[in-house]
Amino acid sequence: MRYFEGHELFLFLVHITSDQVRRVMKAWKKNIVFRNLETLELNGLFHEFSSVDDFKEELNVKQIPEQIAPQVFKPKISAFTPAQAIYSAYIVKDDGTVAFLYISDRSVFLSVKKFTEEEMLERNSIDF
Questions:
Q1: What is the pLDDT of residues 85-109, one digit of tens each?
Q2: Which 8-state DSSP code applies to residue 56?
Q3: pLDDT, tens only, 70-82
Q4: According to the lineage, what is the superkingdom (predicted)?
Q5: Residues 48-63 as b or e (16 or more Cβ within 10 Å = b)
Q6: Distances (CA, A) of 125 to 70, 90, 118
Q7: Which pLDDT does position 93 carry in this prediction?
Q8: How far apart are the C-alpha atoms of 79 and 65, rounded to whole Å?
Q9: Which residues pair with 85 in a beta bridge?
Q10: How far is the C-alpha of 91 from the C-alpha of 56, rounded, in Å?
Q11: What does each C-alpha distance from 1 to 4, 74, 103, 106, 124 come to in angstroms?
């Protein structure tokens, strides 16, 4: 998986540890893996996923400010996931690029945008 260079990655019913997800997300933030990624969906059985809050803190996940409407996301295969998820959080890559993030004890959805955190906050919008 570390050599994946596509734009969309969908993994369903995967057995993965929270540590593996953390390592991948940290490497993605540093632009080591998934350089071309636009959409990531991980759905499955996360082992040892003790705290979503700890995960968010470690990766410096931020809440979208109130004045910016959150983005609604419809997963590709809703039989295994919620029919829709609301992105109310985001993560920032080392280069400043924003990605909206939804995370639960069974799913991780990531939607990479083509704007920076600074641009999003200046415009008070996610519509670019």
A1: 778 899 999 999 999 988 877 788 8
A2: H
A3: 777 776 655 555 5
A4: Eukaryota
A5: ebeeeeebbeebebee
A6: 9, 13, 11
A7: 95
A8: 31
A9: 73
A10: 9
A11: 5, 24, 20, 19, 35
- Kindly report the pTM of this predicted structure: 0.82
Residue type, 7: H
Where do the H-state alpha helices sit in the chain? 18-29, 52-58, 117-123
Reported in sequence order, the residue ranges of 18-104 that DSSP labels E, i.e. its strands, are: 39-47, 62-63, 71-73, 85-87, 89-92, 97-103
CA angle 33–120–128, rounded 5-degree value: 85
State the virtual CA torsion across 18, 24, 27, 31 in degrees, nearest 10. -140
Q: Which tokens sit at 80?
A: 């295994």
For 35, other C-beta atoms within 10 Å of its C-beta total 9
Task: Look at the alpha carbons of 89, 9, 4, 97 in this order and tell me if their dihedral is positive or negative.
Answer: negative
Tokens linked to 57: 């803190």
